[in-house]
Specification:
about 100 residues, three-stranded mixed beta sheet, alpha+beta, YefM-like fold
């Protein structure tokens, strides 16, 4: 289904929202990107309902997550090194 899609940069999608919706209805799913990363797909209601038909909300979320994971498998995240504060905890002063 996504093979027929058109890719829109977010700014273009915002500026031509009516066109985006029309194409989603007539041509199929339309992909929206931010800096080249796919962030959203606009589909017509019938396509959306067909995707969800017979699925619980949890199943639909899991299906989306599995699809997203396969689409983004090549993305590597750089995390800062983890540091642990080994200093002793502060003691409360009981007063003068």
């Amino acid at each position: 289904m996504i093979a027929r899609s058109r890719v829109w940069q977010l700014q273009e999608a915002k500026n031509k929202f009516s066109e985006l919706v029309r194409r989603a209805r007539e041509e199929g799913p339309q992909v929206v990107t931010v800096r080249g990363e796919k962030v959203a797909v606009v589909v017509d209601p019938n396509t959306f309902l067909q995707l969800e038909e017979g699925m619980s909300q949890g199943d639909a979320i899991l299906r989306f997550m599995e699809h997203w994971a396969s689409e983004t498998a090549d993305i590597e995240l750089e995390l800062p090194p983890r540091t642990i504060d080994m200093s002793p905890p502060l003691k409360l002063d009981d007063g003068p």
